[in-house]
Write a structure and sequence with these properties.
The protein is of the alpha/beta class. The chain has a single domain, classed as Aldolase class I (TIM Barrel, Alpha-Beta Barrel), CATH 3.20.20.70. The chain is built from 13 helices and 10 strands. Strands 7-6-5-4-3-2-1-8-9-10 form a 10-stranded mixed β-sheet. Strand 5, helix 6 and strand 6 form a beta-alpha-beta unit.
Length: 399
């Protein structure tokens, strides 16, 4: 999960050399969401009934990472469900970050969670150390509970809302991650309004694109056309009056590309070599969509980050991103999508020159929205200057 982006992103920031996406409980989870792409990763480690990162692996991972040179030491804690590790684990995380952090260094922690296990004690700790949470919520109960269920089959919607209230009670910053599936894809405006009515002003919409062994979309997945229609519906709601109050990650990313010329979302970048996935036992992979035996890069207990970064296997994986289809080279929107995520290109085989399953949807979206995005982008430099003047005046007044 990326750190929250302002709707008017700051000038002068740049992409990190690399960040860490950590799976401390691997694929273990207290829910059994029908569409979860990570559940079968348990099969990589059949000798472990439960998967929990040890203190030794955690210490080695944090210590060696914080000895590298990074503008920001960025940790994303995901799963499975990372809060299965409990408050004591995250207390150890922050203790180690403080122990190994250099004077003046900055640490950013993101935590992606279903929010059903959030306690007051854990929320207080997350607030103290400025964790940014991404909470999974697919919309109203009748949509959310279609796929996001407990192992008993009971829906999780009410439990998620209780978790959100706990986070709010402790002032923990969070955004909402909505997986766009076959249920909510036909209700874009309703989904957007539902989140907004809950007081949630930071949204991230993620397309559900999963294939069977023959390359066919699974029943809960969406088509490219559906994705384009969904994004356009959300955009029309947002652009009608919420551009300065509601942050939508993809829309923020488009504005960043138009104003600053770089991608702050991995699926929009031209190279996939941006972060490492660290599994519970220290195994390293290039991407959480590709935690596969044949793509394992090494293990942090015996491999150094500089060796992992320079490895030809990692470099070759990253370079696949810009080996796009010939049609992409002629597309006016290539600079805004870079051929899309490799996962969406690998329906039948791992040929990076396949068109993305969402290609037609991205075209539909940009054809509908790009003129308005470009108009918004022209306003951002002035808005930034106004914000700088406002801050300077406030500092002078406080004196």
């Amino acid at each position: 999960m990326d750190p929250r982006r302002s709707i008017y992103p700051s000038r002068g920031s740049s992409a990190k050399p690399f960040s860490l996406l950590v799976k401390p409980a691997s694929a273990d989870c207290n829910l059994e969401c029908t569409y979860c792409f990570y559940l079968d990763r348990k099969e990589l480690y059949p000798d472990h009934r439960r998967h929990q990162m040890s203190t030794a692996v955690l210490d080695r991972m944090i210590g060696t990472y914080m000895r590298t040179q990074q503008p920001v030491y960025s940790f994303g804690w995901q799963g499975g469900e990372p809060t299965l590790m409990g408050r004591s684990f995250f207390r150890t995380v922050t203790e180690l970050q403080e122990r190994y952090g250099r004077p003046g260094s900055t640490v950013a922690n993101g935590l992606q969670t279903n929010a059903t296990l959030i306690t007051d004690e854990l929320a207080a700790h997350l607030k103290r150390y400025n964790f940014l949470l991404g909470v999974s919520l697919d919309g109203p109960a009748e949509i959310h509970d279609r796929y996001r269920v407990h192992t008993s089959g009971r829906g999780s919607h009410a439990d998620v809302l209780r978790g959100i209230e706990t986070l709010r009670r402790h002032g923990v910053e969070f955004n909402v991650l909505t997986l766009v599936n076959n249920e909510n894809v036909v209700r874009p405006r309703e989904t957007y309004r539902y989140l907004k009515d809950l007081g949630i002003m930071h949204h991230q919409y993620i397309p559900c694109v999963e294939f069977d062994e023959n390359g066919n979309l699974l029943p809960f997945a969406i088509t490219g056309d559906q994705w384009g229609d969904f994004l356009n519906g959300v955009f029309d709601e947002w652009s009608a009056g919420d551009t300065e109050t509601v942050s939508i990650r993809h829309f923020d990313s488009v504005l960043t590309m138009l104003v600053d010329g770089y991608a702050n979302a991995c699926y929009l970048a031209r190279n996939c070599r941006q972060y490492f996935v660290v599994e519970f036992n220290g195994d390293i992979y290039p991407c959480d969509f590709f935690v596969q035996k044949q793509k394992r890069l090494g293990n942090i207990m015996r491999d150094d980050w500089d060796i992992l970064w320079a490895a030809s296997k990692y470099r070759d994986f990253g370079h696949m991103k810009h080996k796009w289809n010939d049609d992409c080279a002629r597309c006016p929107y290539l600079k805004l999508c870079s051929g899309d995520c490799l996962k969406h290109r690998f329906a039948y085989d791992e040929n990076p020159s396949n068109l993305s399953a969402l290609c037609e949807g991205w075209k539909k979206f940009y054809a509908h929205t790009l003129p308005e995005f470009e108009a918004l982008a022209k306003k951002i430099p002035e808005l930034r200057q106004n914000e700088l003047r406002r801050r300077a005046a406030a500092e002078a007044q406080n004196g």
